[in-house]
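Hi support team,

I've been running sequence recovery on a batch of backbones for a student project. Most finish fine, but this one hangs at about 90% for roughly twenty minutes before it completes. I'm not sure whether the input is malformed or the queue is just slow. I've pasted the structure tokens below so you can try to reproduce it. Let me know if you need the job ID as well.

Thanks,
M.K.
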């Protein structure tokens, strides 16, 4: 996970558009290899959607929704450990069903809470066999979910939540949207499956600020470059990394790609350690918001008072999630062909990240992808 340097090579110049995890990781690796790295960021802060900061009450909050770091890669964890210390990730989630909180993802604990009696692994498997509906090849998120968990769990936990989250019926969403739903046939109530589940001890902004701290790397915030300005930079640099929306880089010539946004409302509770029993509670069937997050459960901040965040999915606003419907997936392939061609130019443009690739990534997947691209850039200069 280190940069590739060659003292005999001329000093290369790299422009990176965006200072989120992808841009900063590539920037750090290339800076360490002796490149002159300039990062431009349209927001007034670095770290992208991982940005966290103390609110007016001193409670550290995740401004763009909770980020639960996890990975299977020890190499990635070791590399990131250069920039942060860690604390254990206490990632526990409940869903509110008929006024009761049940563990998520669905496990023996969930079934026991829903049914009011203990469930064994064999009983859970038998239940699923009776509930599941047969689809030779699920064509949408609803069919995939029905084939995976059956009608009862779909109606209780997933149908309305998915509709609120995406603003359309699960029948209109790609099957891949719900293909990620895990099932557990044990009593493990942790939200995530990955071997390493941790949280940066001083937060994500501190982690990425340390990553950005290199003499060969400079960052300019509140700088927005459009397509023409980015292309004009080719005269001054040897390569460009773009992490913004894929369609925007091509003037939306094939039409706009769809994204889902989020709105956050905060509620402070003075003098209280916690107001809910775990970091996140999902509300599939009540309220306009999808979930409440009390991030203090995982930051382990020792401070009087706590802050609760209410998350409302919306159509307008900053792009957060690619809207995976057939129309947009087909459009994405046309833009991807253009992006692939840009990488083959004398001054290549690399498209990296959730927005630039129009693809859902977890944070560790973004970082691993960024590291691969950094190595590709540096190998091309050898």
């Amino acid at each position: 996970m280190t940069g590739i340097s060659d003292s005999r090579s001329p000093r290369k110049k790299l422009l990176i558009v965006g200072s989120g995890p992808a841009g900063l990781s590539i920037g750090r690796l290339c800076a360490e290899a002796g490149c002159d790295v300039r990062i431009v960021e349209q927001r007034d802060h670095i770290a992208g959607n991982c940005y966290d900061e103390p609110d007016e009450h001193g409670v550290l909050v995740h401004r763009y929704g909770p980020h639960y770091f996890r990975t299977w890669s020890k190499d990635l964890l070791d590399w990131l450990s250069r920039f942060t210390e860690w604390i254990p990730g206490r990632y526990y989630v409940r869903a509110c069903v008929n006024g009761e909180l049940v563990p998520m993802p669905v496990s023996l604990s969930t079934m026991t809470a829903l049914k009011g009696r203990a469930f064994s692994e064999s009983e859970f498997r038998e239940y699923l066999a009776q509930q599941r509906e047969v689809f030779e090849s699920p064509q949408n998120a609803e069919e995939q979910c029905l084939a995976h968990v059956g009608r009862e769990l779909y109606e209780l936990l997933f149908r309305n939540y998915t509709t609120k989250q995406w603003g359309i019926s699960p029948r209109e969403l790609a099957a891949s949207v719900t293909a990620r739903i895990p099932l557990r046939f044990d009593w493990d109530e942790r939200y995530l499956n990955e071997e390493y589940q941790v949280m940066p001890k001083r937060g994500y902004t501190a982690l990425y600020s340390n990553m950005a701290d290199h003499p060969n790397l400079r960052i300019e915030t509140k700088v927005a470059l459009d397509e023409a300005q980015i292309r004009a930079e080719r005269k001054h640099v040897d390569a460009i990394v773009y992490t913004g929306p894929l369609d925007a880089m091509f003037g939306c010539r094939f039409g706009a790609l769809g994204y889902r946004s989020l709105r956050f409302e905060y509620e402070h509770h003075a003098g209280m350690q916690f107001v809910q029993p775990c970091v996140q509670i999902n509300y599939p069937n009540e309220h306009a918001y999808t979930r409440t997050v009390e991030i203090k459960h995982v930051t382990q901040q020792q401070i009087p008072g706590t802050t609760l965040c209410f998350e409302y999915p919306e159509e307008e606003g900053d792009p957060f999630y690619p809207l995976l419907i057939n129309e947009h997936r087909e459009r994405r392939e046309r833009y991807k062909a253009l992006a692939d061609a840009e990488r083959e130019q004398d001054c290549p443009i690399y498209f990296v990240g959730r927005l630039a690739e129009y693809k859902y990534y977890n944070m560790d997947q973004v970082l691993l992808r960024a590291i691969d691209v950094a190595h590709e850039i540096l190998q091309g200069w050898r």
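--
Follow-up from support: It reproduced on our side and the slowdown came from queue contention, not your input. The chain is about 30% helix and 20% strand. No action needed from you.
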